# Entry
Amino acid sequence: MNRRKFIYSVGMTGMSLPFLDAASAAGQAPKAKSVINIFLSGGLSQYDSFNMEVDRAVVANSKIISSNVDGVRVSHYFPTLATQMDKLLVINSMKSNQGAHPAGIYKMMTSYDPRSSITHPQLGAWVSKRLTTPQDSLPNFVSIGKGSAGTAGFFPGQWAALPVKNTRTGIDFVSRNAAVTESSFKTRLGILESLNGDFDQEYGTKDTRAYANTYKGSLKFMNSKDIDAFDLKNENKHIIDLYDKQEFSRSCMLAGRLVERGVRYVKVELGGWDYHDNIYGNMPANAGKLDKGLSSLLTHLTEKGLLDSTLLVVSTEFGRKPGVNPNKGRDHHPDGFTCLMAGAGVKAGQIYGTTTKDGQSAAEDVLEVTDFNATIAWKLGIDLEAEEMSPSGRPFKLADQGVARKELFV
Amino acid sequence: MSDGKRINLSVLLVTIAGNAIWATAGFAQSSAISEHAQQIDQLVAEQLQQVGQDPRPGIDDYTFCRRIYLDAVGRIPTVDELNSFVADPQSDKRFRLVNKLLDSNGYQSHWYNYWADLLRVKYVGDKLHHPGNYSEWIKDALRSNKPYDQMAHELINASGPLYKPGNGATGFYAREPMPLDHLANSVKTFLGLSIECAQCHDHPFDDWTQKDFYKLAAFSSKTHLRVDPTPDLEKKKYARDRKTLKNKSFDEWIVYRESLRVKHAAIYGNGTGFMRLPHDYQYDDGQPFEAMEANVLFGKMPELAHKLTKAKVDDLAKNNFGPQINSRESLADWMVSPENLMFTKSVVNRLWHQVMGTELVGPLGGLSQDEMGTHPELTQELIAIMKATNYDLKKFLGILFNSKTYQSRSLALSADAPDYLLDGPIVRRLSAEVIVDSFLSLKTATPDEYVATKFRWDGFTNFYETSQEMGVEDFVNYSIKGPGRGAFQRREEVAARKRNGDIGPKHLWRVSCYGHVDGAHHVAMLLGKSDRDLIDGANREPNIPQILYLMNGHLEKEITKQPQAYLHRKLDEFVNPEDRMEIIWKAILGRLPKESEKPMVSHDQSDLIWALLNSNEFRFVR
# Structure
């Protein structure tokens, strides 16, 4: 009745027609068609990555290197991205009110503080609910990676993310069982239809029909011409060659393929950033993954001509403290952290906002999580004022009271 | 039916006492149960008569057997169980089966899933809240059939160490340690009222004001979860070593901190009877930070042994709520009192919903005070029965199960169905856990074999016990020479597992046996099992990943084509395809094949099994 996770439902059967978002703000800059959100769970250290605009001591053991944009510097852990900073907007003034992982992630994903009386829909679920049309053959919220998939909160389960836990195995059970021949599968469906028809005569309800419809939707999905998007082997060789073989890179490639097919919101999770100890020993490997995967994705989107219509967002639940602790790690720091954006007309090659020089807090152009999410949704052309009712009849807005920061775009 | 005098006498005894006098002798008990069941049937019949609707027809033994297994023990019957029930020639066989099932291990397994969803049993890592002990407490309450009012009282009033075996009721507070959120949850859980809006502002459509909320919160004020040792202990014993370790090695410090927490995490405080209005209180009838004396939402206010007057508390510092006076216990008294109509109405509404598939009164977590549902006399009667059984959940369920109302043809709620008059069960999808556990009835002849019959240890309870003998030095040694950060919990889990002995192979466990170290049951999650973030968080909806699993997933390997599965061992007893078809139908659908289905016998056996497992008839109860 309330919370639905890991669920993608009858959206494609035409059973529950999603409404088109006609109420989007008119006369604005061109809209983004899709969003790719690379989410760095655990809390990216802004001072060992993209915020070098602080006292040297704050950057500690990281080395500062220049990039292909004058005045934009990054840490030496991101040598490849340093050659692509002209495509990225660095936001150094992010601010959250949550300092623990689950609450911080929840806030970032939903724009709300976690409460035990309600689960709010994630941004991807809002996007999917607002923008899905009956013509779409793929779900509009896909979540790639091992972390938790995207919940639809109090929305019906059909708006939750379709999870792809691993790019090598793809979507679980989307292919017919190897032990079952095609003709046998057909026979089975025939018997099933006859049993269900019979049962419905006496015991049919809207729930039994919803099942029948979801079977149809699932079969349609299994046979969809777009299902091959999930198989990376089908990609052009020169795109495949942009990427290395690591799972995160493959996830980025899949995200690129999905937005090419029109999927509206793709979340890719890369975890492991919670370096309370030995950050300089442990972070390089993870930073390498991000450096390579994200750079390849930027090239991929550019080559396919998708970067203008895709808003690429790199975010995390909070940053890390300016001081290195006795265990040579950095602790949680929600007051002043860093996120990145690219594509969709964002002011690339720039830095937005500052922290104080001692790295303690966001200073100029502070960007709260709600405003950050409002900005993403606004760019997709979604009306931020539209309300959805929770089961108890309480109205909620996509980004709570968040206001879009339009100045981030050209 | 039976001796009228005797029945009247038992009713008399029950009514006079208000709280039941239940004879323990088998016959008297059975007559009391059927007497109450008849009262339900009588009221249902009267209502049907009034609107001129025919009573629903009864159900055959096959339908009854499948339904009662699903509702009492949470799985379909095995072929043997079904056959033996159908073959039983005695006229009281339904009554006996109900009793047998309510007394079986399956009852605990099935109803644990229900209560664990309501009570939100879940591992919340960052708050060091491990729910093993809490979970065991609930299982034990079900095993011993602890009266529901006592169960609720213990949950509301629990205090002391979180991981002390037997003290798991503290898990209820620890699960939501924010005092105001905790209160709103408790009221929703036990009274079926939704008052959480009043936490921040006067309730928009109910009567509750923000002030009412704070007055109720006053009962449990200053109750809190503390995971670290008390400041006193900390200062005298642990602080120095903690600091040394932190500067020396992060891992050693973490193990020191976490192991101390397992010993010391506890619920403190029992209520001061005063609360303060919030800093932003916006109404004219009070000032920000004004002291509020405890008061109930309705009904009789329990007496509190206040040591200070409101005026005195108002004079204290803003964070001082006065001395502890054990007012939380009074809150528990008020909540579970038989005079608190909402308490009994809510649980009756919940159990009816579980058994019949619809609400008796109104939304499970959104009742209103004067609402009595579409059949107020029936609601009244069920409340009286619950009180008469002394909140004995098994007896109450036994009464429902023995009613003709329950044992009647289920109704498919649809546009062209007759008006639904709470006259029996409705067609509905099985819960996620019941579907998964029903697969088990096809895999093994003994699906309840590995349901726990006694307390099970986990890493936290195990270490809690070990740590009782440990002094400061031992903790220091433990963290320096111990297994290290990552392995700390694992090592304790291994020790606990050894202590528990043989608990069977995982693939033959019921869903309820999955603990908190094993992670979520993936298939059950796909089918809508609650993730226990919210009260009543389960759903019964289809979704594409779920259907893909049912069509293309592991069932093929585990059941459809698995020669070792119990279903296939049963099939091996027959060669004739018609006989085999009968086994498949009985095993999966709990009935014989219909005439119209008999031509299907020509199909491949595995195709039939697949189709039945995927059918609506399998996952819906009729």
